[in-house]
Amino acid sequence: MGEKLEQLKTHLYRPLDLNYAAAVLGWDQQVFMPPQGTEARANQLATLSGMAHEIFTSEKTARLLEAAEGEVAGLDYDSDEASLVRVTRRNFDLQTKIPTELVVRHSQATSKGFTAWQQARAASDYAQFQDNLAEIMDISRERAEYLGYVDHPYDALLNQFETGMKAAQVETLFTALKTGLAPLVQAIAAADPIDESFLEKREYDLERQWDFTMLLLRDMGYDFQRGRQDKAPHPFTTNFSSQDVRVTTRLIKNRPHSAFFSSLHEGGHALYEQGSPQKFDRTPLAGGATLGLHESQSRMWENQVGRSIPFWEHYFPIMRAFFPEQLADVAFEPFYRAINVVKPDLIRVEADEVTYNMHIFVRFELEKDLLTGALKVADVPEAWNAKYREYLGITPPDDAQGCLQDVHWSSGLVGYFPTYTLGNLIAAQLYAQAQQDLPGLEAGFARAEFAPLLNWTREKIHHHGTKFTAPELLQRELGQEISAQPLLDYLWARYGAIYHLK
Ligand code: ZN
């Protein structure tokens, strides 16, 4: 490695270490911190991330980066050296294009906005949040102008979370998905409902649920020497290097499968981070590349793997041994169908995998119109409810269960939602390829053999760290563009069987 690049790398240790230290505090905040710790913790987090931002956006970084760019010019695009400089440049531009004045206004608007949103949601009164949302949308529009775009201001915002994707591409993908999903949702709505009473009406001991999630994590290849699981009200994954990757789960008495799928989901995120090469630790190349790619890993373990028949052929007998009183009278098929019920619901985070993407379409379409001004902030509840009627056939009874349900807008995360659906699309594409490359893959699940899939994702995805964008990675490893068909094929096959559709 050249001298200039070495200097840049060493310089970046400080902002990276500060951010990882802030992440430890953030993890503690959500897992262990007593409620009264909030204020002091917010100050500590602001100090650490402020310091990291200051160092990263400094003149010194600009100088070292430019020098390193000269040194790696002509090196292979894929090389560690060129990639490190390229990724650093991208992050640097994203963080320095926005003037400090706007960063400050953004942080004030979102901290006020978050409080207003919490109160508005508690009172189910959109009017209490409306002015805050208007301000956040104004700032988002300004932000897009500073970041720059060619076709649509949404492109600039989306690019912060999913490098290289544009609103028009997302729209094409979503239209294809929508068209293919609508008849599936209708066919399921017309099918005989599935009986879930043995889940909903019985209590499943929380400690045993916990033990079962630990077993799942171990079996899927999550390394407890480099991680741990804890409980959190909103499950998440975080990491402080590839050697310390932590997951959380949530236990509910009459929804044991919720904890299992949650641990599989977060476990999928964690395998990605644990699979990041150790040589990338403490550099911008460490970890997962984009939000969509990250979500592809979590959704693949949760859905493609965790909802397959062979998977439950292995785990259902084990689960019965964990919960003999609750499941003694339940046979395999009714159990398998009950944990895979499809039901249009008002709340995104509780949606099944068939209707989940509908929730994303609603938010994407509203965000785009809000950004251009085609939709007035005052008209959001009405527009939201109309879209829920259109896509899911249900009308929210109030704003708390409607347009106030998600935290994202109050936090200034405009342009973020599409990454959830992109993750679902990519998961289906990767899994279809893995099935071709690994004969007998699913038969192995019935023996709890997950190493072939894990090793495949290590090689195709994880070992690249953050080098490539999602479109680059798919082109390189699968020779494909992101597309909707594999997800549609997967959903029709799986739910056609579960709902006995003709
Ligand atoms: Zn996730």
Task: Please mark out the parts with pLDDT under 50 across 5 or more consecutive residues, or reply none.
Answer: none
Q: What molecules are bound to this protein?
A: zinc ion
Number of helices: 22
The CATH class of the largest domain, by name, is Mainly Alpha
β-strand number: 3
Give the ordered list of helices and strands: HHHHHHHHHHEEEHHHHHHHHHHHH
Provide the CATH architecture of the largest domain: Orthogonal Bundle
As a percent range, the share of helical residues equals: 55-70%
What is the beta-strand fraction? Answer: under 5%
Shape: globular
The average pLDDT is 96
Strand order within the widest sheet?
1-3-2
Using brief descriptors, characterize the structure shown.
502 residues, mainly alpha, Methane Monooxygenase Hydroxylase, Chain G, domain 1, Neurolysin, domain 3, 2 domains, three-stranded mixed sheet, 22 helices, 3% strand, globular, binds zinc ion
Description:
There is one protein chain. With 502 residues, the protein is mainly alpha-helical. The chain folds into 2 domains: 3-148, Up-down Bundle (Methane Monooxygenase Hydroxylase, Chain G, domain 1); 167-498, Neurolysin, domain 3 (Orthogonal Bundle). The protein has helices at residues 3-31, 38-56, 59-72, 80-96, 100-123, 127-147, 153-161, 167-190, 197-200, 206-220, 256-274, 291-305, 309-322, 324-327, 332-338, 356-372, 380-392, 418-437, 441-445, 451-460, 470-478, 485-498; strands at residues 229-231, 237-241, 244-249. Strands 1-3-2 form a 3-stranded mixed beta sheet. Helix 1 (3-31) packs across helix 3, helix 10 (206-220) runs parallel beside helix 11 (256-274) and helix 18 packs across helix 22 (485-498). The longest helix is centred in the N-terminal third of the chain and has 29 residues, at 3-31. It is globular and about 70 Å long. The relative contact order is 0.12. The model has no long low-confidence stretch (mean pLDDT 96). The structure holds zinc ion.
